[in-house]
Please model this.
Amino acid sequence: MKDVLTKLAKAQTGFVELRYHRRTSNSFVATKGRVDVANSSITEGVGVRALVDGAWGFAATADTTDAAITRAIADAQSMAKALAKARGKRDVKMARGRLATMDLTLDGYQELRDMPIEGKLGHVVDLERRLAASSGKVHTARCRYNELIEEKAIATSDGASAAVRFAQPEISLSAIAESGGERASGSKGAGVNGGWACLFRHPALEGMVDETAKIAVDLLDAKYPEGGQKTVILAPSVVGLLCHEAVGHTVEADFVKSGSVAQGMIGQRVASDLVTMCDSGKETIAGYAVGNLPFDDEGVETENTVIINNGMLASYLHNRESAAEFGVEPTGNARAWLFNDEPLIRMRNTYLMPGTSNLADMIMGVEDGYLVDGAGGGQADSNGEFMFGTGYVYRIKNGKKMELLREATLSGIAFDVLKTVDAVSKEFRWDLGTGYCGKGQAAKVDAGGPYVRCRISVGGRQ
Amino acid sequence: MSANLDKMSEGLDQLAERALGMAKELGADAAKVGTSLSFQRRLVVENKQFTLANSLESRSIGILVHKDKKKGSASLNSIDEKAVRQAVQDALALARYSVPDPDLTLATKDVATPAKQLAFQYDEPLAAMGLEELQGIMAETLVRLTADKRVALDRYEASVDVSWHGMRNSLGVKQAERQSITSWSFFGMARDGDEVTGFDYDGNFSFGKTGLAAKAMHDADVFTKKILGALKPRKAPSYKGPILMTPRAVQELLFGMVLYHAGGRQVMDAKSRWNDAVGKEVVSKLLTLKDNPHDPRLSGATAFDGDGVPTRPTTILDKGVLALHLHDCYSAKRCKTKTTGHSGGPFALELAAGTSTLTDLAKSRTELLVVDRFSGNSDPVKGDFSGVAKSSRLYVDGKDAGAVTETMIAGNFFELAQAVLGVSKEQENVSGSCLAPWILVDGISVTGNAD
Model:
């Protein structure tokens, strides 16, 4: 498709961007000894953006013939013209950046495509059975597997011409434990950009069946943490959520333009100097992060974007248009969920760089606080206020890790919390690979980091 | 768009019939085919300027097969006959490697009688509305939204969608309906100098063209007032006691939990706390919850459910008493009962208004947190919830004393649902998704940041 799109894009007089996307999604859910979902879905088509007199027009077609794509180009141009006519011309510039010219197949794509479906479904059924049998207290076990097998190609009239094939499998296990009328739940999961073998090498899946059951069973007797401002050590999954929710969204350039708290803050101190935070489409720390993409959905090569450098705000996340407006290079953050979605500024793999401390020493330095793990859902805000849930908490008393406590919600003002960071561990893990970010469209993202010690508000019972 | 819709839906319906034939030919014992078609015109405003216009045509076909008491499904967005045949084969391949389930079932003609198109769902003038007219309404609304320079409007979108969806199964059930709908959404915050508020959003819809512009203007005024009201927030106290939940908070905190435990799928797996509670009081007597899929005020209105069973108004909670469990055909068979037409539902919820005035409810505590949006986590199994009270305000002696920031709430759904102190006479439509009053509930932990 790359060559077809390139030929059509070059034939246009104004700016057009042609994006082919074929997604095969296989989903399986097993619970209570049955298969609730065994579904295969294919979505394929070409999305077209056209820029006319400073107005964008977008059209899409599920028909991938030259004639249909040509009609979609005309539709997009016609929509852009109509909008420009209605509201007047506007000067829109597009930063060029490094426009991709490549054709790649990433690791795991062929493996996952070639693997028989019965092997995948059978493993999901088996994991659910093993989890259900792992403890007499497990009332309900559930295993969910989903894989996205992607083929993408892009061509722009100003020179991008690229194609990539990749796979993003993910798996999660959850258990509800019951005893004496009490119920509690536990879960574990991981997702990667890679194949089947890569997925099951993910460190978060180590002992996944027993660990999932143990969390659910142990939480049956657990108490709640006390609410208030606390010294906490955040596990990598929670650090990932902090990076994504608390900072990442506020530095997306479209949100910055609208007036987010990060507006006008470049070069200013927003965190302790132990904090270096990045968003990367080409992570090299562990090699399996879900958001690894060689180029974005505008055809710009991705990079490792340093958002906070030793505590100072260093960069926003850009598409081509916002980069031109801010006078910087695009960072490769334009992403579209499906062929019929227009690209928006989105994160990829957002993380805190590892430091020099080790976890044991960090725990020893806490007189009264918590170790927080098991990232749940989260949300950011324009004023930097964030919230995210965590699955479980360990009390830390006089430098020792103590009993397991129930889930907690953490909240704060991002830049205030990051200024309290006083220790960052050497250990690192990507741990948000089952996550989807929502911003009108979904996006598959990853996040992670080391263990981080800071002061944060913990929601609890009065 | 409507002429295309009629012509193309007919073709898609015929393809669905052929897909059922393919399933039978390839060895399926039973099959269901769902189809959908939509045309959309959409405009986007970013940072107070029109930036994008789009034109989309979408089609999809989904096939579910049963084979030897096992199931598999496949879907695609192509209407190519060969691709559809391949999808049927894929569904059968998945079924082959699945696990037998003796309770697999499809709706029969005696329960899935032909559903009548809801007349209010399709309006020819709206279906024919062009981009220029939509842009005109949005431009007027935009003036209202941005009149105050402190409004930082991040995104404003509006679209006109004309759609059709149908389903058929191998037992002879056949349903279809069409819809015209325009919907709009606002997303933004207020910024005054260095002060930035939290973001907020709102949206609404209309099935018809009449009154559309006035409705959008009204929503714009309400949204603007709300985000400007979030400036200069104050610190909230920490306490355990009552909070007043706005209709939006009621939807976010209460509805999900009620539906989890009233849901047939949870009941059949013994995950619901209300497995044996039909006819029993499960929440406060002050709460009556209905699902009315034929209510034109709510965007989820539909004539039939995902199984093809006609929908009907249903009472879920009647003065605190659980009236029924919400079943689709599968959960009904597992529970040895009848479907309530809730495959993919409920569709249009209404929590009945009460007898208290909002003014009286606001006076229930000297310092009362009024929660408008809940951003947090809830555990339906245990009933615990914990999160941030967003877009929320503090009332002092019954009067609005301003927005609050960094305020967290925590509690338990089962305790909250029993501790309802009052329900307002006033009721609001929450973005077209449900109708709910304000509710005063006790026993909530509020963690503020006031000294």
